[in-house]
Amino acid sequence: MVSVELTSGVLHWFPDKLSQGPPERKRWCLSSNFFMVIDVTAISSAQTDKLAARRNFWGLILGLTGVLVFSATLPATRLAVESFAPWFVTFGRAALASLAAMLCLLVMRKRLPRRHLKALAFIGVTLVFGFPGFMALAMMTVPSAHGGVVLGILPLATAVFAALWAGERPSLLFWLCGIAGAAVIIIFALRGGGFTLQVGDLWLFAAGITASAGYVISGKLSHELPGWEVICWALVLTAPFSIAGTIWLWDSTYTAAPQPQVLAFLYLGLGSMFLGFFAWNNGLRLGGLARIGQLQLFQTFFTIAIAGVLLGETITLETWLFAAAVFVIVWIGRKSRVTAR
C-alpha cells in the first residue's frame, strides 16, 4: 500500500496501513490501491486566515446584494398599492414566489428535507407572511417615515437572535455599533417631529422582530441546505395559504392595472420574496448572521435612493450625511469580533 502525506507543505511518500496514523489525519481514497493522507494540523494559519477573509468578502457582497434587492420593496409596494389592495399584494406576491419556487425545486429534482420541516415552516410564517403582513398593518395607521424604525432595529434584533439561537458571541464593540446604528436610523426617520407611540408603531416593532427571527433561522439553516433551497421550501410549505388568499382577494379590476403597477407587483413576488433571499441567505452563511445582519442599516438609504429614481423623491444633503454616518458605523462593526460558542 502506498500513501502520500502532506506535512508542513511537503509531500512524503511512504508505505502505510489504513489503521495507522493519528485521528487528525484525513484519508481520501483516490483509487483501489492509492490513498492520500493529509495532516489537518499542518495547514498554516495564513491559509486559514486567507480562506476566512475570502468567505467574509463574498458574504459581504452577497449580503449587500440581498439588501439592495430588499431596498426596492417599499418603492415597489407604493407603486403596487395604487392599483392593488394591500392584502392582495401581501398574499399575491407570496403566491407568485411560491410558483417560482416549485418550478425551481422540480427542475433541480430536490426532495423535501423532512427533518427541517419545523425550521422551514417558521421561516415561512415569519418572512412570507409575518413581516409583510405587519408592515401592511403599520402602513394603514402611521406615516411611512416610521418604516425607518423597523430598518433601524433589524440589525440589532438580528444580532440578538443570532446570539440566542445560532451560538454567535458578538463583542462589546459590535453591540455598541449596532445600538449606535439603530439610533442614527431612528433619528433620521423621526427627525423634524415628535415621536408619539401609536398602534402602528407596535406593528412596526412586530415586523422587525419577525423579520430578524426569520433571517437568523434562515441563515442558520443555510449551513445545511443551499440558501436558495431554504427559501424555496419555505415558500412551497406556505403556498396553500398564499394561493388561497390570493384567489379570495382577487378583484376583476386588477386585469386593467397599468404596466408600472404590474411590474412593481412582479418585482415584489420574484425579487423581494424570491431571488433576494438567494443572495441574502448565502451571505448570512458565509459572513455570519450578526455581522452581515448589520448591513441592513444601509437599507433605509438604498430605499431612499431607489425612491428618488423611480418615484422622483428629492434626496437632500442631510440624507447623505446620515448615510455616511451609517457607513462608518457598519465598517467599524464589521471589524469587530464575532465568535462562536
Strands across the major sheet, in which order? 2-1-4-3
Q: How large a portion of the residues is in β-strands, by DSSP E?
A: 5-15%
Q: What general outline do the C-alpha atoms trace? A: globular
Number of helical segments with 4 or more residues:
12
Mean pLDDT: 78
Low-confidence stretches: 1-35
Number of strands: 6
Number of domains: 2
Q: What is the SS-derived class? A: alpha+beta
The Cα radius of gyration reads 23 Å
Element pattern in H and E: EEEEHHHHHEHHHHHHHE
In which range does the helix fraction lie?
Answer: 55-70%
User: What's the end-to-end separation, in Å?
Assistant: 41 Å
Q: Largest sheet at a glance?
A: 4 strands, mixed
Word description of this protein:
With 341 residues, this protein is of the alpha+beta class. It is built from 12 helices and 6 strands. It has helices at residues 45-71, 73-80, 86-108, 117-139, 147-165, 172-190, 199-221, 227-249, 259-287, 289-293, 299-310, 317-335; strands at 2-7, 10-15, 25-31, 34-39, 168-170, 338-340. It has a 4-stranded mixed sheet with strand order 2-1-4-3, with no helix packed on it. Strands 5-6 form a two-stranded antiparallel ribbon. Mean pLDDT is 78; it is low at 1-35.
